[in-house]
Design goal:
single chain, about 475 residues, alpha/beta, Rossmann fold, 4 domains, six-stranded mixed sheet, three-stranded antiparallel sheet, 16 helices, 13 strands, globular, ABCF, ABC_transporter-like_CS, P-loop_NTPase, ATP-binding cassette, subfamily F, member 3
Length: about 475
């Protein structure tokens, strides 16, 4: 028997094993599990993990094969903040090339050294951090708005001159005036052409608005007394809290601790431990989008079913949420996750309820829509109970936090919550610098609104110095 081919195959297998780091494979696995804070679950069955932990295991599994390019599509969706931090650690420790689609501001600000921005059917590359990319967009916006303002003034002057030349050429048949008119018209056309908005600076943002008809004075809107939740194991016991009619509250906790089930039971209001004020009307956004949207409906049919009278009324309403007229006959099942969440927001806003239950409303939304939703929440006149793992949305628009710990829920002030998160995941001065940065960005927006370009440029220098500290 000729064993040479067998020996050759054996050697090839050994070489492949070595190239994968076979001798160190268990050590490599342990390092990845440590980075993901999953070492304590090393001997568990996959079926025993939470959804967030399972997602991290999927990421680790793909990284262990050492691909030249690893592509991930929104790996952060529905991860709690601890698991999100673990994902950040895995991304930053990976030696190969990663291409990741994400709208998560925590990952965007802490993981990447190159940005590919797809907007208005164009792609723009930027070498550097996302925070630096955003700053470059602000600088470019100041520059373009100043040019546009100067162009507008010049166009006004040119229009007056064109009208005078046209009148002279028409009424006096002066050839010289006709030539001057043509020259001035060409100048005006060039000025108009320069006003074309750049796709990455002037981005159309949704105009999300959340309406409440029956606005009631500050009183208890929702009271939960001695609530318990168990499946195979006890998840929550002896839960007590109340929410006032003007409160905006975040419900947070690790994946798999019963947040969604609690919110759903509050919405259904069929539990003896859950009591609403009789004047409260509730609307619900589900992270399981099929609960509140019918995938087999078109957008048009979905809104006819909730009381809209005609297609024009629907088109006008959904246009504020980023939907163009041509998509109204599109099946909801064909929409992206972000589009479905925007459609849910459009639906619950049309209900004009004075209490909103929102389960992961920012999931799948792009950063511009997230910011638009934050503004809508701030301006909403009712009360909100929101499940979220989006630290930025919580800090920007919630009044306090209900945090699940040790199978119960306790209230935490936003100030204490911020300190807790920053102590765990950020440098000591990050919070103060981030708050100053946001304040300066607001001042720049106001300066641009007033066409005060000199002030905007001075403020951008201040902003740049703050960004260097982050």
């Amino acid at each position: 028997m000729d064993i040479d081919p067998l020996l050759e195959k054996y050697q090839q297998t050994l070489d492949a094993f070595d190239s994968l780091g076979g001798n160190d494979f268990e050590s490599i696995i342990n390092k990845k599990l440590n980075l993901a804070n999953l070492m304590k679950h090393k001997n568990l069955m996959i079926s025993e993990l939470s959804g967030g932990e399972f997602k991290l295991i999927q990421v680790i599994k793909e990284m262990l094969s050492s691909p030249d390019l690893l592509i991930m599509d929104e790996p952060d969706v529905f991860l709690d903040f601890e698991n999100l931090n673990s994902l950040k650690n895995l991304i930053n420790s990976h030696k190969g090339t990663l291409l990741i689609i994400t709208h998560n501001r925590f990952l965007l600000n802490n993981c990447f050294n190159k940005i590919l921005h797809l907007e208005n059917m164009e792609l723009q590359e930027f070498d550097g951090r996302y925070i630096d990319y955003n700053f470059s967009l602000i600088q470019r916006k100041i520059e373009l708005q100043e040019l546009a303002f100067a162009d507008t003034e010049e166009i006004k002057r040119t229009e007056v001159l064109v009208d005078k030349l046209r009148w002279a050429a028409t009424n006096h048949s002066e050839p010289a005036k006709g030539k001057s008119l043509k020259a001035r018209v060409k100048i005006q056309e060039r000025l108009e052409a320069r006003r074309i908005k750049e796709p990455f600076v002037y981005i159309k943002q949704p105009d999300i608005r959340l309406f409440a008809d029956n606005i009631i004075e500050e009183t208890i809107a929702l009271k939960v007394n001695d609530y318990n939740l168990a499946f195979d194991d006890i998840l929550l016991e002896n839960v007590n809290f109340e929410i006032k009619s003007t409160d905006k509250v975040a419900l947070i906790g690790p994946n798999g601790t019963g947040k969604t089930t609690l919110l759903r039971e509050i919405f259904k209001n069929n539990h003896n431990s859950i009591n609403f004020n009789e004047d409260i009307e509730v609307a619900y956004l589900s992270q399981l989008q099929g609960e509140m949207l019918n995938d087999s409906n078109t957008i048009l049919e979905e809104f006819f079913e909730i009381g809209f009278k005609n297609s024009q009324e629907i088109i006008s309403w959904i246009s504020n949420y980023g939907f163009e007229e041509e998509v109204i006959n599109q099946k909801i099942g064909s929409l992206s996750g972000g589009e479905k969440n925007m459609l849910q927001l459009a639906k619950i806003s049309s209900c004009r309820a004075n209490m909103l239950l929102l389960d992961e409303p920012t999931s799948h939304l792009d950063t511009y829509s997230q910011i638009a939703l934050e503004k809508a929440i701030e301006n909403y006149n009712g009360c909100i109970l929101m499940i979220s793992h989006d630290f930025y949305s919580m800090v920007n628009c919630m009044d306090f936090v209900l945090i699940i710990e040790n199978k119960t829920i306790r209230k935490m002030s936003m100030k204490k919550f911020r300190k807790m998160i920053y102590a765990k995941h950020f440098d000591r001065d990050y919070l103060e610098i981030e708050q100053k940065k946001k304040a300066v960005e607001t001042k720049i927006a106001l300066a641009l609104k007033d066409n005060n370009f000199m002030l905007a440029k001075i403020l951008s220098e201040e902003l740049e110095s703050l960004i260097k500290l982050l």
